[in-house]
Fold this protein.
Amino acid sequence: MNGRKFWPWGAERQQESEKSDGAEVLTASLTVADRCDRCGARAYVRVLLPNFLELLFCAHHNRQYASALMKIAVEIRDETGQLAHTSPHVDSACL
């Protein structure tokens, strides 16, 4: 569990989220500094728990725990779609 990071409160929370049908919708994206709580890889999934703590997961650990997290999470922000948009650098000298 990521005990060092908590969801913002008050005015800061209102700036980062918006109301949509009574559910909080986060607008801030995960960055390269956000790391998986299980293995330390780059996090692509943020899970908000009922006690306002968050868990961060890489794509692999998200797939591993997805069914259990869906039962207990207040919100899940999945940004694994970014993985398909990144392309490795190809050195033209190797072609």
In short: Residues 10-81 form one domain.
